[in-house]
Design brief:
- The complex is a heterodimer of chains A (116) and B (114).
- Chain A is built from no helices and 12 strands.
- With 116 residues, chain A is mainly beta.
- Chain B has 114 residues and is mainly β.
- In chain B, strands 2, 4, 5, 6, 9, 10 and 11 form a 7-stranded mixed β-sheet that branches. Chain B has a 4-stranded antiparallel β-sheet with strand order 1-3-8-7, with no helix packed on it.
- In chain B, β7 and β8 form a beta hairpin.
- Classes of the chains: A mainly beta (116), B mainly beta (114).
- The interface between A and B is medium-sized, with 25 and 28 residues.
Chain lengths: 116, 114
């Protein structure tokens, strides 16, 4: 079963628009971690954020913000005032304590295109 | 460089051939992971090393795939009797400790099996 669902395959916005990328996860563990990674056209995955299951506080980092809601098993990512450089594929991932090494289970990704 | 290094960046081979992909993790990182990414998909877990031992190889698709990390640093992913379906980007990642989950990825090795 898919543990991480990113329902949006592709999103296209115009620069300066706000955009939210959705992520829904599934786990039976009480201890788990959620991540967002960015994969620009160059291909290298870049870590953006990690949240643990006990910390539901939302987080803001510059133009990026994350909304973690255990009640809906969601960990959504919002980019405010998007820029062309934000164009990339964004992956949400789940790491469960029951997995050896906390290996990440990735969603299929959302391709974001920001046009001038 | 200070990041995860993978070689070769591109490998084209013929069906049935043997292939080795190398990963040099960030110095001091004890955990090492191999992932495979097909076009339009998220990375798929293959195997995890903690030190020299393979702590979890549950993601390896079949016995044609094998990986080693003999000295707890560099790792090699080995694929025997390659098939066209093995074509993908093979990603290596390392982390300070498995519990952190913050993985640092290399740029990947793109394997094409003709």
């Amino acid at each position: 079963a898919q543990k991480v669902t990113q329902a949006q395959t592709e999103i296209s916005v115009v620069e300066k628009e706000d955009v939210t990328l959705d992520c829904v996860y599934e786990t039976r563990d009480t201890t788990y971690y959620l991540f967002w990674y960015k994969q620009p056209p160059s291909g290298e995955l870049v870590f953006l954020i990690r949240r643990n299951s006990f910390d539901e506080q939302n987080e803001i980092s510059g133009r990026y913000s994350w909304n973690f809601q255990k009640s809906t098993s969601s960990f959504n990512f919002t980019i405010t005032a998007s820029q062309v450089v934000d164009s990339a594929v964004y992956f949400c991932a789940l790491s469960e304590g029951s997995n050896s090494g906390y290996a990440l289970n990735f969603g299929k990704g959302t391709s974001l295109l920001v046009t001038p | 460089g200070a990041g995860v290094s993978q070689t070769p960046s591109n490998k084209v081979t013929e069906k049935g051939k043997y292939v080795e992909l190398r990963c040099d993790p960030i110095s001091g990182h004890t955990a090492l992971y191999w992932y495979r990414q097909s076009l339009g998909q998220g990375p798929e877990f293959l195997i995890y090393f903690q030190g020299t031992g393979a702590a979890d190889d549950s993601g390896l698709p079949n016995d044609r795939f094998f990986a080693v990390r003999p000295e707890g640093s560099v790792s090699t992913l080995k694929i025997q009797r390659t098939e066209r379906g093995d074509s993908a980007v093979y990603l290596c990642a390392s982390s300070l400790g498995s519990y952190t989950g913050e993985l640092f990825f290399g740029e990947g090795s793109r394997l094409t099996v003709l």
